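Dear Dr. H.,

I hope your travels went smoothly. While you were away I took the liberty of generating a structure for the chain from your last submission, since the lab meeting agenda had it listed for discussion. I wanted you to have the full record in hand beforehand rather than looking at slides cold. The sequence, exactly as received, is reproduced here:
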Amino acid sequence: SSPDGRWTAVAIGGAQTALRVWPESGSGEPVTLDTDTVTYGPQPPAFSSDSQWLASFRKGNSLTIWSTRSWKVEATFSLKSTGRALAFAPKGTRLAVATDGEAAVWDVRTGDKVIVFPTPGSARMEGMNWSPGGRRIVTLADDGILRFWNVSDHRLVASLYLTDSGD
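The corresponding predicted structure, in token form, is as follows:
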């Protein structure tokens, strides 16, 4: 859902893929932003903190920024590998992007990567998110390790090994 409570965005998989946005109020029809080029990762499309943008992946190797005012594409950026997870910073225009083999922070206005976090071996990034204050980022790789990073100096702060408890 968008931070302002106006929209819910859903990437729909299956035989008829789509990226759709529904108004939260229940009034109005959903808006279909994309169909056959939608790519899915473990996290849903991401709204910016001011609810003005929606970020999604297209064709696995492209990052798309949509305007929530017009539902038109504002920007498209190429990725080196398949996109897996997106998360806008709590404030500002930065977007955390997890792909196969990379975790990075992008400036949405310029399309520049402003931070690239070291990736362990061949681990594929599965998820990424910001702390509420925006000072830390957590990444999850397919090696089952949560890594907590300090945004200001890009330093690894802590690692948490996930285990399957069998429950």
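Two observations you may find useful: The chain has no helices and 15 strands. The first strand starts at residue 7 and ends at 12.

With kind regards,
E. W.
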